[in-house]
Specification:
The chain is mostly helical and 192 residues long. Helices cover 65% and strands 0% of the residues. Helix 3 packs antiparallel against helix 5, helix 3 runs antiparallel to helix 8 and helix 5 packs antiparallel against helix 7. The longest helix has 29 residues. This is Biliverdin-producing heme oxygenase.
């Protein structure tokens, strides 16, 4: 099935860039055994500007290429989690005057990064709940997807239908660039 082939291709193509985000010093505490509420709050504060940038960018790209994919921003949930922890969400820098993605494949590459973050969010939510119980607000990590539990498979079918194999490398390049920008934004976030 083409959707499965695309999934294998893109995961392999972006493995290193994805790993750099997962292992970013600002996010790494989320999966450590000694996680406390202060660590959790600092990680959420670092995520906030990057998530808002990515959601804005993907929404713009989906609109530009008339891609009918259900996107429900989780940035407001992340802000609510921060506020519940007694932290003020840092203002998100205005989006750079970036050019729109060059193609539908590039827009789908950015969407891959955003949708994949929900899978990571499930793992993080499980770990955080084990470590911090109900003390940690997790609206951002536990928000349901409009497509339900099967959203990841639905994403791959959608991406394969919209992106022919000859465009997969473009999708991969855009996903890598999205990971790199996200990583850079994590590094720029104010330290808590």
């Amino acid at each position: 099935m083409e959707a499965d082939e695309l999934a294998r291709f893109l995961k392999r193509y972006t493995r290193q860039a994805h790993h750099r985000v997962d292992q970013h010093p600002r996010l790494k505490p989320l999966m450590q055994a000694e996680l406390d509420l202060a660590d959790y709050g600092r990680a959420l504060a670092a995520l906030y500007p990057a998530v808002n940038w990515l959601e804005h960018w993907v929404a713009k790209a989906l609109e530009a290429f008339e891609l009918a994919y259900p996107l429900v921003p989780r940035g407001p949930l992340l802000a609510a989690d921060l506020i519940a922890l007694g932290l003020a969400p840092a203002p998100t820098p205005p989006p750079q005057a970036e050019a729109m993605p060059a193609s539908k494949a590039c827009a789908l590459g950015a969407l891959y990064v955003l949708e994949g973050s929900r899978l990571g969010g499930d793992m993080i939510a499980h770990h955080v709940h084990q470590r911090l119980g109900n003390d940690a607000p997790m609206g951002f990590f536990t928000a349901p997807h409009p497509l339900g539990d099967g959203f990841w498979q639905a994403f791959w079918r959608f991406a394969a239908a919209e992106c022919p194999p000859r465009e997969w490398a473009s999708m991969g390049n855009a996903a890598q660039q999205t990971f790199e920008t996200f990583n850079a934004m994590l590094s720029l976030a104010p330290r808590g």
